[in-house]
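Troubleshooting: if your tokenizer reports a length mismatch, compare your output against this known-good record of 96 residues.
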Amino acid sequence: MLVPATTVALLYKNRWHVELFFKWVKQHLRVKRFFGRSENAVKSQLWISVCVYALISLVKTKCALSQSYYEILQILSITVFEKKPVFTLFAGKLHF
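Known-good structure output:
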């Protein structure tokens, strides 16, 4: 069966967009592997990661932070149970 070149090019282009999406997910959302194999498990993990990324982005913008997303996430992860306003966590010079 012979497939037209335009169809092959379109399929490759769409596959490339999927590859770029997963590359972005791995780099920005820190999703290295999926905990489940079902469609629902993968979608749930991706949505949770997107929500965390959005919240980190909101904190970075609202508090005018100079730290990277990774540094903000690290600071929040070690201070998650502290009863302090979020902006006070970044007032000191924290380095990792």
